[in-house]
Write a structure and sequence with these properties.
The protein has 269 residues and is an alpha+beta fold. It folds into two domains: 60 residues, Winged helix-like DNA-binding domain superfamily/Winged helix DNA-binding domain (Arc Repressor Mutant, subunit A); 185 residues, 2-Layer Sandwich (Beta-Lactamase), CATH 3.30.450. Helix content is 47%, strand content 18%. The two termini are 41 Å apart. The C terminus is likely disordered.
């Protein structure tokens, strides 16, 4: 049996007691409901208040949920919807290009594949990247696009080492090299990688943005060849990948706005 963290468990239980019907609660009521000492409830509330998860609504030590809870909600919404809402988008991209297509997010120094549309064409079925696959962000074209919001000092904080691990001759050797790649992709609004991480595999990636304009994912099309075929580019491959990214960005925007409006209505009840 896995070990529980009592303080974390109690803090989360405090948060779940708030609802649309009871948006304001005090320590005495929470003590009665949770069956824990009032002094513990006070400490939990003070900690949650310092982190922005609850806030005081009056001088009588009553609390309501704070803005950090909404941020967690948006984060969950985005991670869930990027894969669920985005799947039909990349399936359509797969159907129009014939290529294996994915949605990829960044987790600190790694990228993670969160949705996949496998190619129906036998010649392209050799692309076997699965949902959950993790790759080093600095070495993958997808990672360069996903880091498009980061400046050089932020990249240095993420990669404090002097030299980066190289997987092919095209892998950036230093943070400064990485930043140049990131800037180029940011300016273009997409990226083409030809055998940059794995020899014989090329990709086209474009950024997906949330309601604040922050890059939260990329849509990609993968070609199991050392170079991107000129015919694919002439047939509008880059524009199709960018359109899929823009479509997913719009979907996330509308869903997040709907979520925001719903939460605001709850607060007013």
């Amino acid at each position: 049996m896995s070990e529980m963290v009592p303080g974390l468990e109690r803090g989360l239980k405090v948060l779940t007691e708030f609802s649309a019907r009871e948006p304001v609660l005090g320590a005495p009521e929470l003590t009665k409901r949770l069956g824990i000492p009032r002094s513990t409830v006070f400490r939990l509330l003070q900690t949650l208040e310092s982190l922005g998860f609850v806030e005081r609504v009056d001088k009588d030590r009553n609390y309501s949920l704070g803005p950090s809870v909404l941020q967690l909600g948006y984060g969950y919404l985005a991670s869930l919807e990027i894969s669920q809402v985005g799947l039909p988008i990349i399936q359509s991209l797969r159907d129009t290009t014939g290529l294996a297509c994915h949605i990829v997010i960044r987790d600190e120094r790694h990228i993670v594949f969160v949705a996949k549309a496998q190619s129906h064409l036998p010649v392209f079925r050799s692309v076997k990247v699965n949902v959950g696959t993790r790759l080093p962000a600095h070495a993958a074209t997808h990672g360069h696009v996903l880091m498009g919001d980061l400046e050089l000092d932020e990249l240095r904080a993420l990669y404090p080492e002097r030299y980066l691990q190289r997987f092919t001759p095209l892998t950036p050797a230093t943070v400064e090299d990485l930043y140049e790649r990131v800037k180029e992709d940011r300016q273009r609004g997409y990226s083409i990688g030809e055998s940059s991480f794995e020899s014989g595999i090329s990709v086209v990636s474009a950024p997906v943005r949330d309601r604040t304009g922050k890059i939260v994912a990329v849509t990609t099309a993968t070609i199991p060849r050392a170079k991107v075929d000129a015919a694919l580019l002439e047939n509008g491959l880059i524009g199709k990948v960018k359109k899929a990214a823009d479509d997913l960005s719009r979907c996330l925007l509308h869903r997040q706005e709907a979520c925001s409006n719903y939460l605001e209505r709850m607060e007013l009840q």
